[in-house]
Amino acid sequence: MNNFFKINYSYLLLFFALFQICSSQTLTVSLTQEIPVNKTNESIENFFLQDYNEAETYKVSLSVSSSLSSSFSIIVTDELARDTGFNSWTNITSLNFTGSPTRIQNGLNSLVFNTTSYINGIIILNVVITKQVDNTFYNPTNGHIYKFIPGQITFLNARTAASSSLYEGVPGYLVTITSADEQSFINSKTDAKNIWTGLSDENSEGDWMWLDGPEAGTVIMTGNSTPVEGQYNNWATSEPNDWNTGEDYMVTSWQGGSQWNDFGPPATIGTGDIGGYLVEFSSERPVHIFFASVLLFIKDCSSALVIVTR
User: Fold this and answer.
1) Alpha-carbon span 106 to 234, nearest angstrom
2) Out of 2.40.110.10, 3.10.100.10, 3.30.930.10, 3.30.450.20, which CATH number does the structure's domain 144-281 have?
C-alpha cells in the first residue's frame, strides 16, 4: 500500500516505516517529525521500546542510506558500547552499539541529525534492533547477519558447522563475499587471519565457485587467472596459485591482510594456520528483529513529498 503526504513547509519530513516479525517487542516513535533543511544537530526523538527484557543486552544498528551529505550523532552514551569496527558516536553515517533497553532508548532519544539543503533528494535512516549474540554483526548495507567462529578447524568441518548454524531459525552458510563493501565490512569486524569462506575449485581445478547460500553455483574465476565479468574477486598478488599438490579452498584475511588466498587440502592438511570461519545468514529477516526506516523525500524548497510502501 502506498501512502502520500504533502507538507507545505521548508522542512524535511521524517516517516518511520515500521516492520516487526513474530514478536511483541516493539519500538515506537512519532510517525512524522518535521526537521528544517540544512541544519546541524536537529533532534529526532520520542523513541520508546516496549516489552524488551531489561535483563538482556540488545544490539542496535543505525545507518543512513543516501548519496547526500548527511550524518547523525548519539549524544547520550551512558552504559552503551560501540560494536567492533565502529569508532565514533558523532557525525557518522552508520553505527552498531549494544546496551539494555533503557540505555538504548535514552541513546536513541539523544539522536541528532545533520540535514541537507539538497532538493529532490532522498535520505533514509534505518533502525534495526536484535538480540546481542557474541561475535555476530549486522551489516546495514545488505541486511545480512554474520557470525565469526574462531579456532583451528578443517574446511569440511567449518562448512558442516556453518550449514548447521541457525540464527533465530534462519540457516547459515560459509560466507560469500560478493562486493568490496562487504569485504570491507568483514575486514573491520575481526582481526583474525586465514578465515574459511565458501569459495572453492574442488569440482573443477581453477574454476572458483561459491558452494552455498544464495550464490551457490556461481563461478567467479576460471583457469585460476580469469575473473568472471561482474563477479567480485579479491585475490592477493599471484594468487590463486594451486601451490604444491593443490589448494582447493579460499581463505579471506590471508596472513592478517585484507585479501584472499587459495589454501587447504590437498597440499595443506593441518589447521594450525586457520583463524576460524565466518557464517552468513541472509535468507530472510530473522524473527525478533525490529526494523524501521526513516524516509526523507525532499520535493522542493516549499514542500516535502513522502511515499511509504508497506
Assistant:
1) 41
2) 3.10.100.10
